[in-house]
Write a structure and sequence with these properties.
Blueprint (H helix, E strand, L loop, with lengths): L6 H7 L20 E4 L8 E5 L17 E6 L5 H16 L3 E6 L4 H13 L4 E5 L6 H11 L4 E5 L17 E5 L1 H14 L4 H5 L4 E6 L7 H15 L3 E7 L7 H13 L9 E4 L2 H14 L5 E4 L3 H8 L5 E6 L2 H16 L3 H5 L11 E4 L2 E4 H4 L28 H7 L2
Parallel strand pairs: 3-4, 3-5, 5-6, 6-7, 7-13, 8-9, 8-10, 10-11, 11-12
Antiparallel strand pairs: 1-2, 2-4, 12-14
Helix pairs in contact: 2-11, 5-7, 8-9
Length: 411
C-alpha cells in the first residue's frame, strides 16, 4: 500500500540545507582504485572513484548497459559514505554501467562545480547528495535545462523555490532517510528499557532530555522532530529540557561542555532517558556522562565506528542507535538512477517506500542497533554490524525493482 501523508507535513519538514546523516568515521578511498582530482573551483579534496569494467552479469540484456553515472557527495568520505560509494559502484557494474564517485569536502561551490563538470562531460546520470535547499532547486533546474537528457536522483536534498515554497523538478526523484521513524523508534526503545518499565506500565510519562536543534536548523532534524512531537503531545514523554551545541564548528566538544553544565541541574532519577538527534552530538553527551559517572540511558540517530566503540565500553550508557544500512543505501540509489535512465518511473513509484501524495519522493526505512547487539560478539564494526542486527537491517523488500533487475542483481 502506498504511504500517504498530508501536504502540511511536507511543508513542515523540509527546512534548510545540510543533513546530519552520520558523523565520524574514516576518510578513505575505494579499493576499486581512486585518484584525487582538482575541480575548476580550485578545490583539491574531491576524490574520483571508478567502478571498473562495467560488464553486466546475468542472462538478460540490461537497458542501461554502457551508461556512465556518478555519485556526487557534498561531504568528505566518512566510512558510511564510502560504504555507500562501494555499493553504488558495485551495483552499477552488475547493471552494465560505469560509475565514479566524487566527494566535495563540505564545499557547496565544489559540489555545484562537480555537477556542472560531469554534465558537460557527458555523464548519463547523476546521484547527488546533501545539496542545500537554498540553492539546490534553482541550480539543478538550470542544469537540466542545459542538459535535458541528463537523469538526476537526489539524497537529502530538499527543494525550495525562490519564494521559499516546496518545489519539485520534473523527472528528478528525491529520497531521504525515514527521519521521523528514527525518532519514534528511539523513544519506543527507551520506553522498553527495564528501568522504565514501571513508569510505562503505570501510564506515567518518561522524562526525556532532548538533544536537538530548534526548528529550521536543517531538514533532517526537522523531520526527526516530526517523529518526536507526537509522543510529547500524547503525554507519553515530558521533555525536561532541550539542549544543543553552542558551537556548530566543534559540535562534539561543545555538546560535551553543554551536557556537563546541564547535568549539574538534575539528579539521575529526574531524567529517564536522553534522546539525541545526531550522533556527533551524542558523542559529546556520552563523554560528559562517562566523566561524571552518571547512570542515565541515552540513544541517538545515526551510527559510526566511534559510536559502536562507545556502546561497547564497560558500563556504557549509550544503549541504541537508529540508522539505515549504508551498503543498501548505495544499491538503492543506483537502482533509482538506473530506472530513471530506463524511463521506468512506474517501477520507482511501485516501491513500498514511495510517498504517493508527494510524488517522486522515497524514504529509506530505519533500524535500531542496540548495545546488546554490538557487544554480543567480538569485532563488531559498522561494516559487519549486519551479522548481529535484526533482520530489518538487511531487509531489501522496500527497494524498487523490475524483471531485468531481478535477473542482474538477484532481487
Amino acid at each position: 500500500m502506498k504511504k500517504k501523508i498530508i501536504a502540511t507535513l511536507l511543508a513542515a519538514t523540509m527546512a534548510l540545507s545540510l543533513t546530519a546523516c552520520g558523523s565520524g568515521g574514516d576518510s578513505s578511498s575505494s579499493s576499486n582504485g581512486s585518484s584525487t582530482t582538482q575541480s575548476s573551483s580550485g578545490g583539491t579534496d574531491s576524490t574520483s572513484v571508478s567502478s571498473g569494467s562495467g560488464e553486466a552479469t546475468g542472462n538478460v540484456e540490461s537497458p542501461v548497459a554502457g551508461k556512465k553515472i556518478a555519485y556526487i557527495m557534498l561531504m568528505s568520505p566518512a566510512t558510511i559514505f564510502q560504504m555507500w560509494s562501494d555499493s553504488f559502484t558495485e551495483t552499477a557494474e552488475k547493471l552494465g554501467m560505469t560509475a565514479d564517485t566524487f566527494f566535495c569536502a563540505d564545499n557547496a561551490e565544489q559540489w555545484q562545480t562537480r555537477i556542472e563538470q560531469c554534465a558537460a562531460a557527458g555523464y548519463d546520470g547523476l546521484m547527488v547528495s546533501h545539496g542545500g535547499q537554498e540553492y539546490a532547486w534553482d541550480f539543478l533546474s538550470g542544469i537540466l535545462e542545459q542538459y535535458p537528457d541528463l537523469k538526476i536522483v537526489t539524497f537529502d536534498t530538499p527543494f525550495k523555490d525562490a519564494n521559499g515554497e516546496t518545489a519539485k523538478i520534473e523527472g528528478v526523484t528525491q529520497f531521504f532517510q525515514r527521519d521521523a521513524g528514527f525518532a519514534a523508534d528511539l523513544l519506543e526503545y527507551l520506553m522498553s528499557l527495564p528501568e522504565n518499565a514501571e513508569k510505562v506500565a503505570a501510564g506515567e510519562p518518561l522524562n526525556i532530555l532532548q538533544v536537538q536543534q530548534g526548528a529550521g536548523y536543517n531538514s533532517p532534524f526537522d523531520r526527526r522532530q516530526e517523529g518526536y512531537q507526537p509522543y510529547e503531545d500524547e503525554g507519553k514523554i515530558v521533555t525536561v529540557e532541550r539542549i544543543a551545541p553552542t558551537d556548530d564548528q566543534n559540535a562534539t566538544q561543545s555538546m560535551r561542555d553543554v551536557m556537563t553544565a546541564t547535568l549539574a541541574k538534575y539528579s539521575d532519577d529526574e531524567i529517564d532517558g536522553i534522546w539525541c538527534c545526531y550522533d556527533a552530538y551524542a558523542q559529546g553527551v556520552y563523554q560528559a556522562l562517562s566523566e561524571q559517572g552518571r547512570d542515565i540511558p541515552m540513544v541517538s540517530v545515526d551510527i559510526s565506528n566511534e559510536d559502536i566503540q562507545f556502546m561497547q565500553e564497560e558500563g556504557s550508557q549509550w544503549k541504541a542507535c537508529a540508522t539505515t544500512n549504508w551498503t543498501l543505501n548505495g544499491e538503492f540509489a543506483c537502482r533509482i538512477l538506473a530506472l530513471e535512465l530506463a524511463n521506468q518511473y512506474e517501477d520507482i513509484a511501485a516501491a513500498s517506500c514511495y510517498y504517493e501524495d508527494i510524488g517522486a519522493w522515497l524514504e529509506i526505512p530505519s533500524s535500531i542497533i542496540t548495545q546488546e547487539q554490538v557487544t554480543s560478539q567480538d569485532g563488531i564494526t559498522i561494516e559487519n554490524v549486519g551479522e548481529v542486527a535484526d533482520e530489518s537491517y538487511s531487509d531489501t523488500s522496500w527497494m524498487p525493482t523490475c524483471d531485468w533487475m531481478v535477473e542482474l542483481l538477484g532481487r
